[in-house]
Structures are given as C-alpha cells and as structure tokens.
Amino acid sequence: MPIYSEKVMDHFMNPRNVGEIENPDGIGEVGNPVCGDMMTFYIKVDNNHLSDVKFKTFGCGAAIAVSSIVSEMAMGKTLEEARKITPALVAQELQGLPKNKYHCSNLGAQALNKAIDDYLKKQGKEVKSKRRRKDEGE
Amino acid sequence: MIDMKRVYLDNAATTPLLTEVVDAMLPYLRDAYGNPQSLHEWGDEARDAIEEARGQVAALIGARSEEIIFTGSGSEANNFAIKGLAQAQQSKGKHIVISAIEHFSVLHSAKTLEKWGFEVTEVPVDRHGLVDPKEVAKSIRGDTILVSIMHANGEVGTIEPIAEIAKVVKETGALFHTDAVATTGTIPLDVKELGVDALSLASNQFYGPKGVAALWLKKGTRIMPFIDGGVHEGGRRAGTENVPAIVGLGKAAELAQRDTSSRTAHLYRLRDRLIQGLTSKIDHAILTGHPSQRLPGNASFCIEFIEGEAMLMLLSSKGVAASSGSACTSKALKASHVLTAMGIPAEIAQGSLLFTLGLSTSEQDVDYVLEVLPPIVDRLRQMSPLYAKFIKEQGGGR
After folding, report:
1. How far lies B36's CA from each of A44, A110, B50, B59, in Å?
2. In whole angstroms, what is the distance from residue B142 CA to residue B173 CA?
3. Long-range contacts of range B255-261, CB-CB < 8 Å, 24 or more positions apart?
4. Interchain pair A39, B385: CB under 8 A
5. Which of A9, A40, A60 sits opposite B307 (nearest CB)?
6. Would you call B39 an interface residue with chain A, using a CB distance cutoff of 8 Å?
7. What is the spatial distance between Cα B184 and Cα B214, in angstroms, rounded to a whole number?
8. Mean of the pLDDT values across residues B70-78?
9. N or C: which end of chain A has fewer CB within 10 A?
C-alpha cells in the first residue's frame, strides 16, 4: 500500500494555488532548506477575507500536499476563520498523514498564520501572538 | 488502457531473481525439503546442495569453501563480523576503526560495541566518498583489533582502495573486514588480492534471493559464534539452513562469475549514458560519488533546489523506480550520513536522487528516464521558493 492517502496524492500531483502573488498583503515563510522543508505563503486580503492564497514549497510530497490543501482551506475565509486551520485539521482533511510527516502539517498551518501576522503588522494592527502560539503548538 | 512503461532503477535496494536462479531453487522448495543436518537420504540431498552452493560462493571470491559462513542477510554478516571479531580479539585490545560512510549494519554494530566498552574511530572520507589509506593508518593505535571499511558504497557508488588499506592494516596486526555487499557479484573480486580477513556479501545484490548472504572468514580467524544452538555453519551460526535460498545464492554466484565482464560492460555503457544525459539536460545536477572509481550500475546525483521524495513520487507516477538519500525519504528524517560525510550541504543533500541500473536495464529505459525527469525537475523547481530565490539572485533568468 502506498504511504500516502489518495487525497495527499491528488494534492501532490495536482497542487492548487502554486505560485507567488505580486504585491501580496502578507508573506509567511517557515522552515529552512537545511531542515528539509521550506514553505512560503502569499496572501491577498480583501475586507478581512483571504481573497487569494498562493504558495511555494521546497520539500517532500507531504509538504507539497499540505501547502496545497492549506491554500484551498484558507481561500475565501475571514482571517479569524483561517486562524482556526490547525495542523490536526490539515492532516484530517488530507485523510491522514504518515506519523513522521505530521510536522509538514504544522509547517503549513504555521506558514499561513505567519502570512496573516505579516499582514496585520503591515496594517499596524496587533498580532495576537497568544493565539498564534496556540495554533503552532498543536 | 495502454500499460504504463515500467523502469526499475533501484537495483541497490534489491535485484530481481534470474530465471536460472529460480529454477535452481524450486526443487528445494518442493520435493528436496530435507534438513541438511539429518542423517538420511533427505538430509544428504539438502547437505549436498548447500555444500555445492558454498563452493560456488567461494569460487566467486577466490576463497575456500570451508571459509564461507551463510547468514540471513548482508546486515547479519556485518553484525557478525564486527561484533564477533571484536569479541574474539578483545584480549588484545578494544579499539575499532570504521569509515564514516559504512552501512548502518556496520555503524550501529560499532555503536553497540561502544556500549560494550570498545572504542571506535570513524575515518572521514573526501568529497568523492573516498577513504584515504593514510587516514586509516593515522587512526590505528596499539590496541586496534579490527578495521572495517566497505568495498564500495551503494549509495554514491564510490569504490574504496581496499587493497591499499589492507597493506596499512596488515602492518599493525589488526584484522581487516570489508563490507563487499555492493561489489560481490557485481565487479571482479578476489579476497587474496584484496588482502582482507573477512568479507560480507549478499545474494540479492547479484540476482539471487533475499534472506541469504554470507560472511567469508579467512581460515584460522577466530570469531565469536553469532547464534548459539547447534553445529550449523561450523558452530558459529546455528539454525536450520535456508536451503532453497542458499542454493539460489550459489547459483547466482556461479552466474555472476561466468558473466561478470559482459554484465559490467552493459552497465558501464548505460550508466555513463544516464550520467551524461542527465547532467547535460538538467542544470545544477551534481554527480555524487567518485567520477570514475564507481560501481558500474550507480548513477547518483543531487538535484539542487528540490527534494528527493517529491522527485521519487513523480518518477513513480511515470513508472520509474529510483531512490533518494534525502531527509524526507528516511524514516528518521535525517539526510543520508554518506552525503553528509562527503561534505554535501544539507539543503543540497535534500535533492539526492539515486538510479541503480541492472541487467534488465535497457538503453530505452535510460532514454525514457532522460525524457521524463527534466519536466519533473522543472515542475518542482517552479514550486520551489529556493529556486525562485536563486533565479532572483541570478538577476532574472527565466
């Protein structure tokens, strides 16, 4: 049996929303090439909603599938709703991930959150770091 | 639906069985089921079969039959050699020398020995994965009892100068073991020419069955038994012999000896076609391992800015089987210790991609890989933030 679910394979083979946004409202970069995975999320915010989400990812099949599904889950959501995309939800949405790939779902949720933080900072708004920590810690 | 092309380029993981090997094994899976230790016709038949195989394996490496100990895997042969030789020599000293790029079955055996009170020195390798005999000489101490350096590394293909290292080791009186799992049955090999005292080999690396391997131990070399419990394998490795597998190993050894030169010629030609084609078609693809002193079927690379597992998955979707030493492909999420020891930076090691060719590999297979891989690399690079950064730093590019 393949190690990845059909959903992971689908998002890996046909990733949604790959790319960069020109003049994004927020950018979130997590991981680094040395640790093996690196994700960059770009967001466009319109009336407190994520009107566009794009990503670039250096990493394994799971990392790419996670990025893709996170972008899909986040698209059109309010910032508050997008904050609620936890690593557990991401893994669930992908019909599960192999144990040693859970950290990829953390990275996906983190990257999105960082992009939102970046947007809020640029807007001169307060970044709710407590919630962020909670989201990242899961 | 048209069947998808399937190309198996993971022969370092395991080779397929040759038909002649299967045919040789079949009688011992059916009617000739006797236990080689039994004193009746059934036993005689099985005993004759494993002794013939012992002779075939010995002939392949220029050894005597009685020096061959059958084991259940190459990893077992390595465990046996490292732990068994160290334990048998411990009155003379407690120091062991290995290289930094050994197989885990050697590295972890050495770690176990450390827990048992032995001391281990790891000799470094250069950027091509070569062990310098001078480095081995430097690391040997008065109490060094065992040196173990692999004959070739299956992951990057580098063939080590074992005969030269043997000269250095011999002067010191320490025993010298070589893990020849990647080379036995693949390139010509003679234990006398190598000058070693012990050598591990594995059947499934040269078209024999899995679950069987051997440790060659020079006559008169003392070793601690690995499995207690019987007279099997000279009292050193108890357990009812895996007769069909041993027969298969024997046959595979015979065929390897007969066909070595035609096999290597075939592999060299296709390997070089793959290496040249890949490095000319794909920018920032680095050949890892030694450029010339390498295994005939090994084409190993690091493809920059992308990750190995993603490449494997896309290759697999095109019917191509390969492997990778990237952190993401390992269960432990650690980059290959071999690439790391060769000084390859972690982010580049992430792009590890290994093709190991075999007898069934054809020119069409190689050309197929050269056709499907570049778009895969392109596709992943278009997704990669590292590549985007690189292009930006280059000042535009495409």
Report:
1. 74, 62, 8, 21
2. 9
3. B255/B18, B255/B20, B255/B21, B255/B207, B256/B60, B256/B184, B256/B185, B256/B186, B256/B206, B256/B207, B257/B56, B257/B59, B257/B60, B260/B187, B260/B188, B261/B188
4. yes
5. A60
6. no
7. 11
8. 98
9. N
pLDDT in tens, A1-36: 778 999 999 999 999 999 999 999 999 999 987 777
Q: What is the pLDDT of residue A138?
A: 39
Residue type, position B366, single letter = V
d(CA B321, CA B312): 7
C-alpha angle B154-B159-B161 in degrees, rounded to nearest 5:
145
B333: Cα separation from own chain's centroid: 21
pLDDT in tens, B302-322: 999 999 999 999 999 999 999
- Between B306, B333, B335, which is nearest A58 by CB? B306
Enter the ipTM.
0.89
A36 neighbourhood in chain B, CB within 8 Å: 307, 326-328, 333, 335, 346, 350
- For A7, the 3-state DSSP assignment is helix
Which of A29, A36, A64 faces B350 most closely, judged by CB atoms?
A36
Q: Which residues of A are designated catalytic?
A: 35, 104
Query: Whose structure tokens read 């950290």?
Result: A103
Strand-pair partners of B152: B159
Residues 6+ apart with CB under 8 A from B382: A18
